[in-house]
Amino acid sequence: MPFQLIQHSAYRLAHLSQTSHTLLSSCSLLPIQQQRCASILGSLSDNPGAYSKRIRRGRGPSSGKGKTSGRGHKGQKQHGKVPKGFQGGQTPLEIVHGKRGFENQLSLDMTPINLGTIQRWIDQGRLDPSKLITVKELAQSRCLHGVKDGVKLLAAKADCLRTPINILTSRASAAAIKAVEAVGGSVTTRYYTATSINRILLGKSSPTGNAGRFEYRLPGPSHRKDIEYYRDEAHRGYLSHLVPEGEGPSLFFKTPGKGISDKKKKAKVESANDRLW
Question: Helices 115-123 and 174-182 meet at what angle, rounded to 10?
Answer without folding.
Answer: 40
